[in-house]
Amino acid sequence: MEPCSLLGDEEMAGILSEQLPADEGAVTVTSESSSLGGGGTCTYSWTRDTWGEGSGKEFTITLMSPTDLTYSAAIGERTPIEGVGDEAFVTSENYFARVGDVVVHLVNLQETPEASVAVLTAAAGKL
Question: Which of 6, 11, 95, 108 is surrounded by the most beta carbons within 10 Å?
């Protein structure tokens, strides 16, 4: 499955708009996919109407197998996230959700934990 197909640009902009203060203008999102080994990565670039040129942010969603999860999530204490997929947690600002035999990994959203959980929940809900 292609990670960028989980959440389209407009859907991602809607999620971010719900999670972030409304006083900085509309959210615009573009995405680009890349393949890495058995999974794939989607890099979302986003900005807001009131931000200056070149001040956008990026974050990634990667799909991986549960066996890769053991290695990728071995970097710190796991804090469970309730109600997302079969298992979900955050460790060292990396967000993971397992749904069956697929794991969604969200990194570098750099906004509130609630925004990261909202994006993770939406992505996991598409698996």
Answer: 95
**Stated pTM of the model:** 0.92
CA proximity to 46, closest of 59, 61, 64? 59
Rounded to whole angstroms, the Cα distance separating 21 from 72 reads: 32
CA distances from 52 to 13, 29, 40, 48, 56 (A): 18, 15, 31, 9, 8
β-bridge pairing 79-80 and 57-64: unpaired
26 to 18, 20, 91, 111, 113: CA distances (angstroms) = 11, 10, 30, 16, 20
**Is-contact 63 39, C-beta < 8 A?**
yes
In b/e form, how buried is each residue of 74-92, taking b as 16+ CB within 10 angstroms?
eeeebeebeebbebbbbee
Residues 42-75: pLDDT tens digits?
Answer: 999 999 999 988 899 999 999 999 988 877 777 7
SS3 content of the chain, % helix, strand, coil (to 5): 30, 35, 35
Residue 101: count other Cβ atoms within 10 Å of its Cβ. Answer: 10
